[in-house]
Amino acid sequence: MPELPEVETIARGVNARLRGDRIVTAWFSSWPQPFKTSPGRQARELAGRTVLSVHRTGKHIVCELGPPKDGRTARGSHRPTVASEPLAQWIVHLGMTGRLLVTAPDAPPPPHTHARLSLESGLELRFVDPRRFGRLEFRNLERSQAFSGPGAEPLSIGADQFAALFRGRKLAIKAALLNQSLLSGVGNIYADESLFHAGIRPSRRSGRLTKAELESLRVALRQVLEHAVRLGGSSVSDYVDADGEPGLFQVEHCVYRRTGQPCPRCGRPIRRILIAGRGTHFCSHCQR
């Protein structure tokens, strides 16, 4: 599943290509699984709207949208609007295998394409999802609240707030990092890598970590995530960015999926165990 760096990379790519462009038409497949909002409503509501910006919230990609081209709100009023004021959102969750691709309209659509948004510029935005665990949702901000992630943002959380997330918890720290209600966007890859850089064994009870250990983990998590974003994320499965290009951070993994290979610090073999049903990779010597 794409994690924070992959989702951030895609959101930035889509924003760079489509910001200020206008959606002319929207097509959706007949499969029901990817849709939190019905395909018909999404097609109607998206047509004519301008893409004001695209950003990441947790593991979701949020497209901030202006009013329809004729200026009407969903309630039929014609009240003036500020050009930069979002009146709607299109929210994309990539699930396990989802891709959000910016392409030319005449490029052959990949199998399992579930949405195609035609833009005034001549570009096309496509949502492709072979396993159909992704979700697409439209929100009218005059009728519902703007989307927000379930947990704290790991790239900006402060030391005291980070420590408070784990205080008194019996969960293993690896399992706690994966809990999206605590931190939004952290998944298996970056939990393993951050715990390695912080020198913390993933099976340790999160509520027993010292304040100093938690601060080391917070800093390591932010550094790993930011470096992964700079390298375009990790392509360990079928992840590609908005232009269809793979990421590069996988070549810098220290422990993730390196079972039996030498630890880059001490040379001892990397171990793999299960925590919360997830494969977990660590060095038993460097992580205490």
Structural description of this entry:
The chain is of the alpha+beta class and 288 residues long. It is 24% helix and 20% strand. It contains 6 helices and 10 strands; from the N terminus they run αβαβββββββααααββ. A hairpin with a 4-residue loop joins strand 6 and strand 7. Helix 1 crosses helix 6 and helix 5 packs across helix 6. It is elongated.
List keywords for this structure.
single chain, 288 residues, alpha+beta, N-terminal domain of MutM-like DNA repair proteins, Helicase, Ruva Protein, domain 3, 2 domains, four-stranded antiparallel β-sheet, 6 helices, 24% helix, 20% strand, elongated
Describe the SSE topology.
Layout lengths: L3 H15 L4 E6 L10 H8 L4 E7 L2 E6 L22 E6 L5 E5 L9 E7 L4 E5 L6 E6 L18 H8 L6 H6 L9 H11 L12 H20 L40 E5 L2 E5 L6
Mean pLDDT: 93
Q: Could you name the CATH homologous superfamily of the largest domain?
A: MutM-like, N-terminal
CA-based gyration radius: 21 Å
Q: First CA to last CA: what distance?
A: 28 Å
